[in-house]
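Record pair follows.
FIRST:
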Amino acid sequence: MNNLVKIGDIGLGEFPLLLAPMEDVSDPPFRALCKENGADLMFTEFISSEGLIRDAAKSVEKLDIYEAERPIGIQIFGSEIESMRLSAQIVERSKPDILDINYGCPVKKVTGKGAGAGILQDIPKMVRMTREIVNSTSLPVTVKTRLGWDDSTKYIVDVAEQLQDTGIKAISIHGRTRKQMYKGEADWSLIGEVKNNPRMHIPVFGNGDVTDGQKALEMKNRFGIDGVMIGRASIGYPWIFNEIKHYLKTGQQLKPPTLEERIQMAKRHVELALKWKGPILGIVETRRHYGNYFKGIPHFKDFRIRLVTADTPEELLPIFDDIHDHFVGQEIS
């Protein structure tokens, strides 16, 4: 029943799985692991338009993309239309497959400036900004957003249609309002309404609370969405993409990774991060992944503390061998 899902001319398969753009998570080391494990489309961490225009090192570094990652989207955020237009042109020079606009980040330091989900308080500006960006680049432009600012402003069905009219090629919708942040349950019924609006003809991807194949299949069947975007459930668990694909295909759960496989993946993740980010950030920014890499291992607390407090590669890397020696052969719950 499903045809090939396309963003512009980019084919993504029948029901693509997308890696969400996550600050300090969706970097090249982690993206490499997710790609190997079945992610169909990935996005960079969000990049500040003001940072790009000022040539700020941290922003420019996030433009780094690699051939093996394709198709890949670079995501930008900002509150000034002219800055966003100029940064779209800078992004185009990095030759990603897609340019994505962040209208969904709920963090106060972003929304307080009217960027990310902050723009949901000014829909006319959101539409104008999107149109300017679409007109300033030859890249296919996509949008990631939320249902609305709060419960009284869930205008996403109308907003998605207006954004489509500007020329965007796909939309990803997180099933929460900005006010909810990441609390409560994602409401997929409105994502379904966007998808089933007869006037919508671009792909609609759903995001929020998809943690396994069963949930992905339920959302696909209930709401007819074109694919799902995976965010927090992928942190420290790049296997999730292949697990979901296997379930969609067979109705069976794949066996979870063994402890040996978890150790190897976590170690490789650190090694890639050290290579790409250097000995300080390479260590600090992989710490948030350990909770999931080693989830369900009984009596793991002391090792977790060691992992998140090790400050140098020399301190950190031997811990993986200690985990192996101490736990391999034990049951993971």
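SECOND:
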Amino acid sequence: MSIINRGLVCILLIALPTGRAYAQPAEDAVRSLMAGAQGDYEAGRYADAEQKAEKAWATRQTVDIAVALGEIELKLAKYHEAAQHFFYAQKTVNVTESPDIKKRIDDLLEQAKKGAGAIVINASVPGCAFTTSATPEPRTVTAEPVFLPPGKLTIEVVKEGYKKESLTVTVIAGDQTVVTVKLVEEQKKDDTEPGAAPIWPTILLASVGGAALVTGIGLTVGSRVQYADAEAIATACAPFTRACEAESQAAFDDSALLQNVGFGMFGLAAASALGLGLYLGLASADAASPTAIRFSPQLGANAGGILIQGAF
């Protein structure tokens, strides 16, 4: 007697409680589906039996239903699906189950393996999922074998944040193939469009030029005020003494210093404006082209400026 025949008599009765206290609606539905599958199987209506058993399996995954569904799939020559269900039953069957039932499950698995191959995927990162050209529904990559129909199949392994890996394998009936997949992280997308000039040089040049211009104006005005003060000191000195001369000269020196620094600030502002014009006009070229221009700030203890590199 096959397991599907004994399933309702033996395994199914063990897996599904029969006491009134356990008569839950879902269990009643599973019982009804499996009873219908039993009748269809015995009548040779294997497709109908498979449909009912699959509905029961979707509701409740147990050893008895896995074995019953696997036997139906054997009749329909769906060997890799049968092997998957028998494998589930083999690894899940209760250790206290009778040796005869365990042996029957082992024998059925070996029978299904004759028409199906298996693959084991070793991925370089955990938490991957995979699909195959024969089984398009995604599955989680584990260390357990996955049974597939024999032939050349395409396998795709995916994980968020990594590039999808595709490879072709040949699945051999009755054999197991180990597939090693190395996933590569995806490069983060740059917010800057290819070929677009970065904005920081524009901000830097405009800021430096504006600050230098304002500072130059302030220093120039200050130097004129200081010059007027120096003249007032010289005029107020009567008689003109060495101390008065020294004070007046110091005021004139301060005025000259402020004026020189102010002119320097005007020069820096002009250089910044020139650099900004060059950058906006030429720096939009692709960085790999020979006409590309690079701007680098050059700051030191006694000087500051911008280094412009490129072909003009």
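COMMENT: Residues 161 and 188 are 9 Å apart (CA to CA).
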